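S1.2 Input.
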Amino acid sequence: MDRYDSGKKRGDRDTGSRFPFGSVLLFVSFLVLCIFTFAVLSLITARNDYKAGKKAAEHQSAYYAASNEAEDRIAELNAELKNAGGAGGGVPDRVSFQVPVEDTAVLSVALEAEDKGRGPVYRVTRWELVPSGNWSPDRTIPVMPPDVTD
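S1.3 Output.
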């Protein structure tokens, strides 16, 4: 036998390991793990963004409802002021009121009577959203739903 002849046929190859597809299997496993991780992170991010958007929409709706109520009240006060013939006719010169927006805030409005060319009207001097009560931020980071148990 020739010293370079190992007894194998010419087409046989020795890969040097028991599993000739090991590196490919490791690469595919790593790739699947990465895709799964990114999918889970995307799902969690999308769910949290949805909840934050829903909460912001509810707050905006409550603010717009309070704003409409305040504008209706201003229209009523302007009608009273015109019927009284101005601030000297038993109607106050300055008016302020609050409209609740949510449990944690109120819309504070202040008005001042002035006489324009078309007659007396109330001019808005303050329109601000004021926190009411104690506000406590939500510091939790919900990674898993609360109904999942170990």
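S1.4 Remarks. Residues 113 and 122 are 4 Å apart (CA to CA).
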